[in-house]
Amino acid sequence: MGARGPIPNREEDLARPRSRKGTDEQDAKKGLMRKVTVPRADPEWHPIAKQLYDSLKKSGQADFYQQSDWAYAYALCDDLSHYKKSGKRSAQMAQTLYSALGNLLVTEGDRRRVRLELQEPEAEMTSASVLAIADYKRELGFS
Length: 143
Hints:
0% strand
């Protein structure tokens, strides 16, 4: 899991970039991402575990998940399903599961602690030439 303590501000909310603050953080080591096959959720899982697992597939941090991350997510959702289906629930087990989900950067706070910020997709811009041609066609009565 990332650093403990309060959730850091988003980069855009800072007065100056973190890189200019004179921090002693080191650059991350780099490796190659491998092709990933996401396992299907177990149809027997509790609905909440299935919903969580399916939401991971659609979330932005999944761009960084590798096969081992998906295996970990599968195992956690399997455990979460057993926990939710059990008649006897333990606060310690809930804390352990939710803490482990933090390792998958499930919440925005988890992601910001490790300096991972998901951005809104940029709006697709139509080039001025395409717009001009469309206007010209419209004026000529072609569309």
